[in-house]
Amino acid sequence: MDEIVSLCKRRGFIFPGSEVYGGLAGTWDYGPLGAMLKRNVEASFWQTFVDSRTDMYGVDATIIMNPKVWEASGHVATFADPLIEDTVNNKRHRLDHLLEDAGVDVKGLSLEQMQEIVTEKKMKSLDGNPLGEARMFNMMFSTHVGPVADDKSIAYLRPETAQGIFTNYKNIVDTIYPDLPFGIAQVGKAFRNEISPRDFVFRSREFNQMEIEYFVDPKDWESIFEKWVADFHSWLEEMGLPKDHTHDLEVPDEDRAHYSKRTIDIEFDYPVGRKELMGIAYRTDFDLMNIQRESGKNMMYRPKDGSEPLVPHVIEPSIGTERLIMAIMCSAYTDDGERVVLKLPEVLAPYKFCVSPLLKNKPELVAKAQEVFAELKKKYSFVAWDDSGNIGKRYAKQDEIGTPKCVVIDFETLEDDTVTVRHRDDASQERVKISEL
Ligand code: GAP
Question: I need a surface site. Which of 83, 337, 405, 406 has the fewest CB within 10 A?
């Protein structure tokens, strides 16, 4: 993990947030390469699950929504993690993580049961001090809307993008009237005031989600649920995640989110352990019924064949961009002792080509290389130029950032218009005519 974090920083993929001021826990910034990778990942999600299908629609809703959204959804009451405080220095810890680190299986334990274990085992904080009373801590960030900061102006930064979809369900049915089943997707920021952010970008306080709410007739939910699990496995493979590194976890009743009747988490074997990459949840009609009750608006869908109107049920695949990027980087990273190579799928690589003149101090080579660079750049956009150091160093740098092909202009090029194309994964080289690049 340390090697990957270091590569991310060294090569401009991901930097600690606000680093110049000492950072801000749980926040990370994308550098130039990371911003390109993130864009490619999210574009692939959109292309696969929205643009290439006829039953999917996109929305782009606001981050700050009417606070009633979060009351109706149950987040104000229940979106909380167990917290316990060091009684000497008042540092706050996530209780289930403390217990897990002490070898306790916390699955299904209530707050009271966790507190009992702390008392029984006379557990101490990470700094060796006594621990206080455990309590639940709501993870939503709150703010105030408008110039008066009082209870009436309180609002939340969305902890999931899903509610921006549910609140627009009626708008989409009324304006587009899609056939059932249909889905709505959204990609965007989500915020959670995690008690203890950790493991690089895995548990951040600000992150991106790629979410789908797929509306179905309840009688069909089971087969559609299975299809979504299979579709996501295929896509994760396209993103370069080896099949044997992803695992389905049937989440037990006591660990499921308050809105879900069935959840499968797809876990990934990260270097820090097997952990949740994404979830697919059967949210039933929980959200639409809550909205109907709290807003007084009718959430019924009228099937076009004239059959009985119904409130659709929902299957929700949800994946965090950062957790996926971390899995992609871990899958792509290889070090055989001689070369560090980021074997990213071509579709994700920030640059598709790197163009360079063999020698920097030969104007005729530089001029020809610039010509080739301009051509490729026009055609593919994602083309790098590199004339720094020697050719070996340039290859090493491009290997580390995952550029699939390096195009080198040498003296032969000036005679026959061919270039050397050097391939990232096996370092093989071939001569190719410029016109055939
Ligand atoms: N709308 C459903 C929902 O939000 P979730 O399991 O709480 O469900 C979905 O979150 C996904 O969002 C997770 O599987 C994970 O990929 C990502 N995620 C959640 N919390 C995160 C965090 N603190 N940092 C990074 N990604 C996170």
Answer: 337
Question: Would the pTM of this model clear 0.85, i.e. be above it?
Answer: yes
Contact 312, 166 (CB under 8 A): no
Q: What atom in ligand 1 is closest to the CA of residue 279?
A: 14
d(CA 218, CA 313): 5
> For atom 16 of ligand 1, which residue has the closest CA?
320
Q: Which residue, by CA, sits nearest to atom 23 of ligand 1?
A: 203
For ligand 1, whether the C-beta of 319 sits within 6 Å is yes
Q: Whole-angstrom Cα distance, residue 264 to residue 248?
A: 6
Alpha helices in 260-320 (DSSP H): 286-295
Tell which one of 209, 258, 262 to mutate to probe ligand 1, the residue whose CB is within 8 A of the most ligand atoms: 209
Residue nearest to atom 26 of ligand 1 (CA): 320
**Ligand 1 centre distance from Cα of residue 190 (Å):** 9
3-state SS, residue 359: coil
Distance separating alpha carbons of residues 356 and 388, to the nearest angstrom: 9
Ligand 1 centroid distance, CA of 52 (Å): 25
Spacing, Cα 18 to ligand 1 middle (Å): 23
End-to-end CA distance of the chain: 36
Kind plus residue range of the DSSP H or E element containing 325? helix 321-332
Is there an atom of ligand 1 within 6 Å of 320 CB? yes
The pick from 81, 156, 160 for probing ligand 1's pocket by mutation, whose C-beta has the most ligand atoms within 8 angstroms, reads: 160
- Looking from the CA of residue 161, the nearest atom of ligand 1 is 1
Between CA 131 and CA 420 the distance in angstroms is 64
Q: What is the pLDDT along the chain (437 residues), one digit of tens a residue?
A: 999 999 999 999 999 999 999 999 999 999 999 999 999 999 999 999 999 999 999 999 999 999 999 999 999 998 999 999 999 999 999 999 999 999 999 988 899 999 999 999 999 998 999 999 999 999 999 999 999 999 889 999 999 999 999 999 999 999 999 999 999 999 999 999 999 899 999 999 999 999 999 999 999 999 999 999 999 999 999 999 999 999 999 999 988 988 999 999 999 999 999 999 999 999 999 999 999 999 999 999 999 899 999 999 999 999 999 999 999 999 999 999 999 999 999 999 999 999 999 999 999 999 999 999 999 999 988 999 999 989 999 999 999 999 999 999 999 999 999 999 999 999 999 999 999 99
Instruction: Pick the residue whose CA is nearest to atom 4 on ligand 1.
Output: 160
- Alpha carbons 285 and 184: distance in angstroms, whole number: 15
